[in-house]
Amino acid sequence: MPNFSIPLSGLDASNTALNTISNNLANLNTTGYKDSTVNFQDMFYQMLGTNGAGDPLQVGSGSSVSSINTNFSGGTVQGTGVDTDVAITGNGFFVVQNGSNTYYTRAGDFSQDSTSGYLVTADGYQVMGYPAVNGVVNTNGGLVPIQLPMDMTSAPTATTTMSMQANLSSGTAVGDSYDTSVTVYDSLGNSHVLSVDFTNTGTGWSYNATVPSSDISGGTGTNTTVASGTLNFDSNGNLTSTTPISISIPNLADGASTLGITWNLASSSGQGLITQVSSASSNAPTQNGNTGGSLTDFTIGSDGTITGSFTNGTQILGKVALANFSNLQGLSNQGDNNYAATISSGSAVVGAPGTSSLGTLTGSALELSNVDMSTEFSNLIIAERGFQANAKSVTTFDQIAQDTINLIR
User: Fold this and answer.
1) What is the average pLDDT score of the chain?
2) Contact between residue 59 and residue 72 where contact means Cβ atoms under 8 Å apart
3) Is the pTM of this model over 0.90?
């Protein structure tokens, strides 16, 4: 009598293949989805005996699914223009957390939650990374949820250095002056106008730096002098000395700390910034202070660094972390684009993008599914033929069974 379990095992294995292929096609447009392939193996064999040459006579018991492997190759990266979208190129998974549960995903279609500004997945899982303290990221510490509240503020920065790319016209008459100013900031982020008056003395140019007396606690008159001296030039119109000038503005009326400013007269290469040539007097001042600012936007770099754009400049806010495993096939697929570590996969090796074996990131982009539709259609035909063949075996076995029963009628 025929053994119905043999074609039934083939039907069951083919059915698993059809379901897997269908799932691949269903996820053709799923962000970060990885294609799966079903592999078959034959089952144990029954020993019937041996032939005259001593060779074994064996009959198989059917087929079963030996493994379902996941293709973890990268998908196409497509730009989206959305700041919170991130794509991985190369190895690694984003680390996400749901309460005490940690998962891993390639889907970088993140957003910010409406209450606290945490970077979250489509299902609300928090994206993990390294925090930044005063703009410095410590990748040696533990992972924390990345938080980017849009009401985040950037502390003010007091001015500590300033410079003037200027020319004092050599055609200026003795006794004439050239006035300019630069806005500087104190430790509270309040601005102060620092005015500088240059006067041609005939042998050089004297300078007198002042701030409004109203900015000084107990200040008298209209302006208060905070620095003065003389600048001298050689026959080519270059400064004879580029020693920095120290400016101190104490007793600020707003209660800020004493404002100590170094006025640099030379560039980083040592070239004097102020000249005395025949062109018109001009000035382009710069300084390094700013008032407090609020977060307006942010970007995620290839190394995972999150840079916030504030109304007063930019600041590093943190870094997205990636994780990798020694055996990717050992990961357990949890659905919702998430994987979980298992004993087979090994523990996650976590680090910054671009380090060790980890890939890099592309901000404002997503990794598409790596399902190849033409390949899946070919696999679908093969699996369908296998199912049909096993189904035909069942009907054939059924006919044989009926014929056997009819022998005794």
Assistant:
1) 91
2) no
3) no
On whether the CB atoms of residues 6 and 396 are closer than 8 A, the answer is: no
Residues of the chain with CATH 2.60.98.20: 161-287
What 8-state DSSP symbol labels residue 15? H
Check residue 121 and report its DSSP letter.
-
Pairing of strands 126-133, 313-320: antiparallel
pLDDT in tens, 226-261: 999 999 999 999 999 999 999 999 999 999 999 999
Assigned superfamily of 161-287:
Flagellar hook protein FlgE (2.60.98.20)
- Specify which residues 157 forms β-bridges with: 290
Q: Scanning the structure block, which residue is given the tokens 């004092």?
A: 168
User: 117: which residues sit within 8 A by CB, 6+ positions away?
Assistant: 147, 148, 149, 150, 151, 152
**pLDDT tens digit string along 339-367?**
999 999 999 999 999 998 899 999 999 99
Torsion region of 180: left, alpha or beta (phi above 0 gives left; psi -120 to 50 gives alpha): beta
Question: What pLDDT, on a 0 to 100 scale, did the predictor assign at position 243?
Answer: 95
Measured CA to CA, the distance from residue 406 to residue 394 in angstroms comes to 18
Which amino acid is residue 347, in one-letter code? S
- Residue 277 — very low, low, confident or very high, per pLDDT cuts 50/70/90? very high
* Closest by CA position to 262, among listed 368, 160, 188: 160
Output the six-digit token pair for 179.
């006035």
